[in-house]
Amino acid sequence: MVKAALIATVGFVLLAGVVRAQETSPDRRTIEVSGNSEAQAAPDKATLALAIETHAATAAQAAGANGAMAQKVRDALKAKLGDQGKMWTGGYSLYPDYSEPRDGGEAKIIGYRAQNSITVETGALDLVGPLIDAAIAAGANRVDSLDYGLRDETAARNQAIAQATGDAQSQAEALARALNVKLGPVLKATTVSQERPVPVMRMQAAAMAAGAATPIEAGQVTVPASVTLTYQIQ
């Protein structure tokens, strides 16, 4: 049970269900509340990250094999994607592999590993499965991520903010009744909202080597919002 005394120089803050005192100016008492909500919307954008990883005895061999394989994957993706999206290199790395030392011995370089990642973005969601299949067939050996999102989250964000505002207002009214005070005007309002994409998977090519088409089904994109309102107490 939370107990609080209402005096001229103290307001009340309700955050995450906790009431705490808030110092204000001597002639202004306030109540501050935070409301939360979220809206969901069907995705209209997919971002797919694929990787090509090669191992060889020398750095040159690993890089050369990786470059040739990556070019095949890019060509396969470009042919499947057409003008329905865009593609870019997400990252590249080349580093040595070391042996595991035993009995206090020193680790030695036993080869080199090259990694090249390719990112594809498309609004044609029905192409996601075929893009994965084409990339794997061309030599990609890892799916690092697949995220579904929104090209424009404005409508969903506005809906979430409106719902969060209603939640905050309801809390303020309940708190005012409990304290036997009247709410005055809103002195301050702030909001935070950010899309939460739908992550789908990360898998190795070996897990998809059975030859069947990759089934992909997108879920709903969630856009959360938090609204904080500061009311003057009359």
How would you describe this protein?
There is one protein chain. With 234 residues, this protein is α+β, with helices and mostly antiparallel strands. It folds into two domains: 10-39 and 158-194 and 225-233, Translation Initiation Factor IF3 (2-Layer Sandwich); 45-149, Alpha-Beta Plaits, CATH 3.30.70. 26% of the residues lie in helices and 43% in strands. The protein has helices at 59-81, 128-138, 154-179, and strands spanning 10-15, 18-23, 30-41, 45-56, 85-98, 109-122, 142-149, 183-193, 198-199, 203-204, 221-233. The strands form two sheets. Strands 4, 5, 6, 7, 9 and 10 form a six-stranded antiparallel beta sheet that branches. α1 packs antiparallel against α2 (128-138). The longest helix is centred in the C-terminal third of the chain and has 26 residues, at 154-179. It is elongated, with a radius of gyration of 27 Å. The model is unreliable at 1-24 and 201-210 (pLDDT under 50).
Q: Which labels suit this protein?
A:
234 residues; alpha+beta; Translation Initiation Factor IF3; Alpha-Beta Plaits; 2 domains; 6-stranded antiparallel beta sheet; 5-stranded mixed beta sheet; 11 strands; 26% helix; 43% strand; elongated; disordered N terminus
